[in-house]
Amino acid sequence: MEKPSVKAIQQGLLPWYRQNFRKNLPWRKNKDPYRIWISEIMLQQTQVSTVTAYYQQFLKEFPSVEALAKAPLTQVLDAWSGLGYYSRAKNLHQAAQVICRDHNGKIPNEVSQLLTLPGVGRYTAGAIASIAYDRPAPILDGNVIRVLCRYFGIRGDPRESAVQKKLWALSSQLVPIDSPGDFNQAMMELGALVCTPHSPRCLACPLGKSCVAYKRGWQEDLPKPRVATTKKKIPYPCGIIERSGRFLLARRPLTGLLPGLWEFPGGEKEDGESLGECLTRSLSQRLGIRVGPTTHCPVIKQTLSHREIEIHPFECRWSGRKILPRWYLEIRWVPRNALRRMPLTAGMLRLAKTL
Predict the structure, then answer these.
(1) Strands (E), the chain
(2) pLDDT of 68-95, one tens digit each?
(3) Phi, psi of 246, deg, nearest 5
(4) What is the CATH code for 232-354?
(5) CATH of the structural domain 6-216, one choice from 1.10.3470.10, 3.40.50.1820, 1.10.340.30, 2.60.40.10
(6) Which of 192, 144, 187 lies closest to 168 in space, CA to CA?
(7) 2, 40, 61, 310: the active-site residue
(8) 40: annotated active-site residue
(9) What is the reported pLDDT for 191?
(10) Is the pLDDT of residue 52 over 70?
């Protein structure tokens, strides 16, 4: 059996990748730095199948970094609706403005410059530099971490700083001078297609002969799994207010949770108040209206990274008083058949579908 080594990975991985990579992924059509940047941001914590559906439409709406920089933030957030982690869209918009202002509209080609852009961390900078500009820059994402931990038999928690440092050092040693972009994509592709989190296809792996985990039967144990954490539950009553066949929607502020997205208006429940009291208070503070909650509809749950929002919809009576978007950016009366086309939060979209 071969021992795990840098040379074995470099010799075995590139030929495998060039025969087996997914040719249908749209961001692999060319090496345009703008398109690669957009794809890398979209792919953060989001499945490839989900990104594929959004990527082409986003580029159609914002075909260049200049177009993205000039667009209103609300338009960018609307185009991002459904992808989640909306701070990514805000950072993209801000970074596009920085690129146009400080880099003459060109995506930087050095890792150090890329790291100055909002929303660009060490992994994203390395991916852009290597894939778009053929710079031998290392990367480290979930797929690469899994491959490295299994191949070299690293049993520590990859979220700990000492293990992170070791993994980055290995990634730096591995990336070759020639074809660094292909190599980095090969590492990610191996993790996505072969060295999967569960039931990895070890017999099809080009690195199997020298993989420590495969030889010792550690595949399912590495990398060390994350300890599950309890998500904070947030009760969020909202009002279903109808007028002449149209429903009241409100756009959330551009700061804070789920920025710039639309929702049936409501607010987070405070300690000591009932759901109905919360809704009455929230709509008074946020819209300047008084409502009478009536029917409590089935609860809808929306899971975020560190919390779970429990949406409690109430059919409401509205006095007809003038609406003042004090906290919300704007309001809109939307026909029933157009609700699904609005850039709603994920939970509110599920609620809209029930209507």
Answers:
(1) 232-240, 242-243, 246-251, 262-263, 291-296, 300-303, 307-318, 330-335
(2) 999 999 999 999 988 888 999 999 999 9
(3) -115, 150
(4) 3.90.79.10
(5) 1.10.340.30
(6) 144
(7) 40
(8) yes
(9) 97
(10) yes
